[in-house]
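ok, trying the design again with the full structure, not the truncated one.
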């Protein structure tokens, strides 16, 4: 979706495995709870041995008993897609609360059904789902929605510090700001981003690709889409 309500889409309402894009509504639910006072972003959380899971992130390589604030867990969940941080946040925020948030925001195809790296649930058909339209709605909600300015600024800062930039941002020049979140699973390559030019033009982009035999094909296709959007914004 581009600024001024222009849009270009294909299969935007098709439900797909979300991979780590599910971390967007998790972050948004957390900040909504922080705003209402039901969650304290400064509260300290101790990571236990049973919290550690494999996959993306850094916490699984650190010692048991490390203490971080909820906002620090959010930063790790977004910037390095930390699965351990994500699972701890799901416990603290509540899976039901996250799914209620998705319903309230009319994210019709977005559901959190399992924690990260829970392959037993995945084998039973319990996956996390979203669509490219729902992801764009999340991005637009972060940037233009009802969040307080402080919450909006924190979420955008986290997205701007994203460490995985080999997809949508890969071919984007420095004159366009990129706020993105990626997702990967076997056969799945996703990326979504807010792109903002120096002239103030904005694009909300979500590219979800599944059924891949080679992940580099997906990454290459997504980076080309990012370049096309960049060219549009800088005309």
């Amino acid at each position: 979706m581009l600024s001024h309500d222009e849009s270009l889409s294909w299969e935007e309402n098709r439900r797909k495995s979300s991979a780590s894009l599910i971390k967007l509504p998790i972050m948004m639910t957390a900040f909504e709870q922080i705003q209402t006072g039901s969650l304290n972003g400064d509260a300290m959380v101790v990571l236990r041995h049973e919290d550690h899971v494999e996959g993306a992130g850094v916490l699984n390589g650190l010692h048991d008993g490390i203490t971080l604030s909820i906002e620090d867990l959010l930063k790790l969940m977004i910037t390095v897609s930390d699965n351990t941080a994500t699972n701890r946040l799901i416990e603290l925020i509540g899976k039901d609360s996250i799914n209620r948030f998705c319903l309230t925001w009319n994210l019709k195809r977005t559901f959190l059904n399992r924690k990260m790296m829970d392959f037993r649930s995945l084998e039973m058909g319990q996956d996390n789902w979203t669509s490219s339209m729902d992801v764009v709605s999340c991005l637009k909600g972060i940037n233009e929605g009802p969040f307080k300015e402080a919450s909006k600024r924190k979420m955008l800062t986290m997205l701007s510090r994203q460490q995985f930039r080999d997809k949508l941002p890969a071919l984007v020049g420095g004159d366009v700001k990129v706020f993105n979140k990626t997702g990967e699973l076997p056969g799945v390559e996703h990326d979504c981003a807010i792109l903002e030019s120096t002239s103030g033009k904005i694009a909300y982009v979500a590219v979800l690709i599944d059924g891949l035999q080679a992940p580099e094909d997906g990454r290459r296709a997504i980076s080309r889409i990012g370049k096309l959007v960049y060219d549009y914004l800088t005309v």
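Keeping the full-length input from now on. The chain has one domain: 3-233.
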